[in-house]
Every structure is written in C-alpha cells, then in structure tokens.
Amino acid sequence: MTGEKVHLDQVQGSLRAGARTGGFDVFQFRLVPDVDACRHDLLVELRGAPPNGARAAALVAGFDRALAATNQEYAAKRASRRLGAPHLLVMAPGWSEERCRAVFESGRRKLSK
Q: How far is CA 80 from each of CA 22, 48, 77, rounded to the nearest angstrom?
C-alpha cells in the first residue's frame, strides 16, 4: 500500500513469532490490505480457545514487531505512521476452507479479496 513490499516468508515468520508471544496455535491466516484505513488486516483461525484481549494484543504486537525487524520498508512506514498498526480479526473455525471451496466451485482458480 505504501511501498512496504512484504514477502510471504516474512509474514509467515512474523506470524509464528506473534503466535508464540500470545501463546496461540494458528491454523490458517490471511493478511489483507485495508487501503481506506492504510493498514493490514490479519485474519487468523486458531486452534483452541479464542483469545482474550491481552493475549490477542500480544499476538498482533508480536507480529508487528517481528515484521518490522525483518522488513526495513515496513519498519520505516510504521515508524513514520504512513502505515497503521495491523488489525487482528479472529475468524470462526472453517472460514478459510469454506471460502476456498466457494471460489473453486465457482470455477475460479485464484483467490482474491
């Protein structure tokens, strides 16, 4: 959105770091740009109990720190506030599989927002 150019490997590693910080086991995730809010929405499906506020905040803060540590452009955009903090959305079990099934049944091969 602002030139941060994050790579999937960076996102996956950062999510693992954030999940460890919050004590979560992430089953599925998606990082979706929210252009209007100038931030990324982090959609996660977790194994186990849903998070409380403090643990959820730890997950997204850990993700944000780890991504900034591995991507200089992301860190610069966050530091200058051109890019807002990621927003965590905990999804219901099965949401990603249901979305993929619907897309493939419609005949499309690629997922889009």
A: 26, 36, 5
